[in-house]
Design a protein that fits this description.
mainly alpha, 255 residues
Length: 255
Amino acid sequence: MNISYRVGHVFVRNLISYKRFVLTTFIASLAQPLFYLVTFGIGMGAYMGAFGGRSYLNFLVPGVLISSVMMSSTFECLFGTFVKMVHEKLYDSLVATPISAEDAITGDILWAAFRGLISGGLMMIVAAFMGVVPVSIWSFLLILVVILLVGILFASLAMIVTSYAPNFDFFNYYTELIITPMLFFSGVFFPLDNFPGWMKTLAQFLPLTHAVEISRAVYAGVYPTRLLFNIAVGLGLGAIAFIFGVNRMKKRLIK
C-alpha cells in the first residue's frame, strides 16, 4: 500500500476542523457511556454482588470504556467519512494533491482512533471520580495503547461498511444489526459465564468480546493465559480489517 508521512497532513487537517465542534463532541462522547455508568454501575450495582471480589462498578467500567471507544471510532468512519466523500468531496480534493488515496483513508482511520482515545480518556476521568482507576501507572499506559488499537480496529471495520454504502440509511443495518447486539453480547454489562453455550460461542466471534476482556485484565492488572488468545484475535482482525478497509475504500474513490 502506498502509505507515506502525508497521513499526518490528513490527521492535522481533521484536528483543525474538529476544533470547531470540540464542545458538542465532548458532550456527545460522554452522554451514553455516562448514562450506562450511572444507571448500571450505581443503580443496579447496589443490588449486585461482588464480581471476582470487586464491586460491579469495577467490573463495568473497563467494558463501558471500550464500548465508548467502539462507538466514537465507528461513527467517525461511518457518517464522518461518508460526508467527506459524498457531500464535501474532500477525498477528491485530497487525491488531486501529492496525498495518495491510501494516505487519505489511513489518516481518517487514525483520526477516528484518536476520537476514540478522547472518548476513552473522558470516560476514565469520570470513572476516576467514581473511584475506579487502573491498578498502576503501567496499567494506565497500557489501557491507552489498548484504546488506540481498539479504535483502529473498529474504525477499519466501519471504513469497510462505508466503502459499500450508497446512502446514510445503509448504516442502519450495521449499527442496528451488528454494533448494538455486540454491545450486549460481548460481556460489557454482565459476565458471559452463565450465558447459554451457543451465546458464549457466538461471543467469541465478536471483536468487542476480546477487546473488553483485554481492557478488564489491564485495568485490574491480572493477566491470565487466555489473554494471549484475545490479543492475537484482536491484532489479527485489526490488521485484516485495516488492509481490506483501505484497499476497498481506494477502489471506491478511484473508479
